[in-house]
Design a protein that fits this description.
heterodimer; A: 170 residues; alpha+beta; 7-stranded antiparallel β-sheet; 3-stranded antiparallel β-sheet; 12 strands; 17% helix; B: 148 residues; mainly alpha
């Protein structure tokens, strides 16, 4: 991935290497370009992990446009707790604010990373990364408590998919 | 608005289901019992079913209540429905006459056993599962999300 107008040859200089203790991945940081950030992944073969890493970096600092009190904001995707559709309007909920999105729920679902944003009912998509705890119910629904204490209900229709996703039984 | 329509549909279904069952039971009792069934009695049954359906839909299907958890919903449902149920049973003359204490005890026991059963399941089974689910989610987050 290159920023526009930057040649790939510019980055190769000797810089300190930071080793990731948990994997064999090497991470190097080089401050040798004029502007922006350029990330390049080197690997022997492209595996699922490589694809995941690429997707993660591509979506780093990605934003969605939302309006609140007539003002337009660029909301960091990682800040979104959940997205809800109410009466054909889509709302983005962060820790302290609610924004109305200009896209429909299904459009946002397609746009967002399916491993992070999970469709938990007909009208809600939840950010799995911002869930603090899960609690299954006798009714087979799952209650998800978000980092800000709000509770989201994962309906039993979608509960099986969540269990499969996080590695519980299907 | 969509939510309100959904609640109305649920109310209609709950009312139809409960009233149909109770009319069937009342008809059977009437056929094999004293053979006495009045329109006034059926109206009281209908009123009881209507209140039961309202309580049920409010307690278990409104967005506000759904977020509170099953035991909370059940408690609210019992608190809304049981006093009215007891009163209606009294006015309908079901719990009047010989054998009444035994019937009251039977009703009370049924409610208490189902309530305590739900609390026990929630405390011992669901709490344990909640820990398991949360642990799995954290594991998923650490492997898939924050550390790609």
């Amino acid at each position: 991935m290159w920023n526009k107008g930057e040649a790939p040859g510019q980055i190769f200089r000797a810089f300190p290497i930071i080793r990731n203790k948990r994997s064999s991945m090497r991470v190097t940081v080089k401050n040798n370009i004029e502007s922006g950030t350029f990330v390049e992944i080197h690997c022997k073969e492209v595996t699922g992990e490589t694809e995941r890493l690429k997707r993660y970096i591509s979506r780093f600092d990605e934003r969605i446009t939302g309006t609140s009190n007539g003002q337009t904001h660029n909301i960091e995707i990682s800040q979104i707790l959940y997205i809800e559709s109410v009466d054909k309007k889509t709302f983005l909920y962060t820790s302290g604010s609610v924004f109305q999105a200009d896209k429909r729920l299904y459009e946002l679902e397609e746009l967002l990373d399916e491993k992070t944003f999970f469709r938990c009912s007909k009208s809600v998509i939840v950010n799995l990364d911002r869930i603090k705890s899960l609690r299954p119910e006798v009714t087979r629904n799952i209650r998800a408590t978000m980092e800000n204490g709000e509770v989201i209900v994962i309906s039993r229709r979608y509960a099986a998919a969540l269990k499969k996703l996080i590695g519980l039984e299907g | 608005m969509e939510d309100f329509k959904r609640l109305l549909v649920l109310f209609r279904n709950a009312l139809a289901f409960s009233f149909a069952w109770l009319v069937l039971c009342v008809a059977l009792v009437s056929v094999f019992g004293d053979g006495n069934l009045t329109a006034q009695f059926l109206l009281k049954v209908f009123a009881l079913c209507a209140w039961g359906s309202v309580s049920f839909v409010f307690s278990f299907f409104t967005n506000f209540m759904k977020k509170k958890g099953f035991i909370f919903c059940l408690t609210v449902f019992f608190a809304l429905f049981i006093p009215v149920e007891v009163l209606m049973f009294y006015f309908m003359g079901i719990f009047v006459g010989v054998g009444t204490p035994a019937m009251w005890i039977l009703l009370g026991s049924l409610i208490a056993v189902s309530y305590v059963g739900c609390i026990l399941i929630d405390t011992f089974v669901m709490r344990k599962r909640a820990k398991e689910y949360t642990a799995k989610l954290m594991e998923y987050k650490s492997h898939t999300l924050t550390k790609p």
